[in-house]
UniProtKB/TrEMBL annotation:
<keyword id="KW-0732">Signal</keyword>
<feature type="signal peptide">
    <location>
        <begin position="1"/>
        <end position="23"/>
    </location>
</feature>
<protein>
    <recommendedName>
        <fullName>Cytochrome c domain-containing protein</fullName>
    </recommendedName>
</protein>
């Protein structure tokens, strides 16, 4: 009788644990719904770049000439290489920074800022 109760309990636990519940989506920060209404500053964007990119992308040894050691150099690089920057940093397939893609909310904000002409 004990074996029967044990097996029945284990079966009930197995069935209950195999429900088709999805985990909650991770919080990626605020969602950018309308780029037209957002006010994103160059200082904010460059702060993100400094925190995540200038460790490697600084000075004469910066890969592929992507020197982000100053805001002007960063903006100049993005102006000249927008497609590459968007692909490598902002797209769903982003491989930069190598430590892991930026949060989606940051990628959206930077993309919006570039689309608006990189305002101060």
């Amino acid at each position: 009788m004990r074996t029967y109760l044990l097996l029945t309990s284990l079966l009930a636990i197995a069935i209950y644990s195999c429900t088709n519940k999805e985990a909650a989506a991770p919080d990626t920060g605020p969602v950018v719904n309308n780029c037209d209404t957002l006010q994103i500053s160059a200082a904010f964007v460059y702060g993100v770049i400094q925190s995540n990119c200038t460790f490697c992308h600084s000075g004469s040894t910066a890969p592929r000439g992507a020197d982000f050691s100053t805001q002007d150099k960063f903006e100049s690089f993005v102006s000249s290489n927008e497609t590459t920057f968007r692909l490598r940093v902002l797209s769903a397939q982003a491989d930069m920074p190598p430590s892991g893609a930026l949060r989606q909310s940051l990628r959206d904000s930077i993309s919006c800022w570039i689309s608006k002409g990189m305002p101060e």
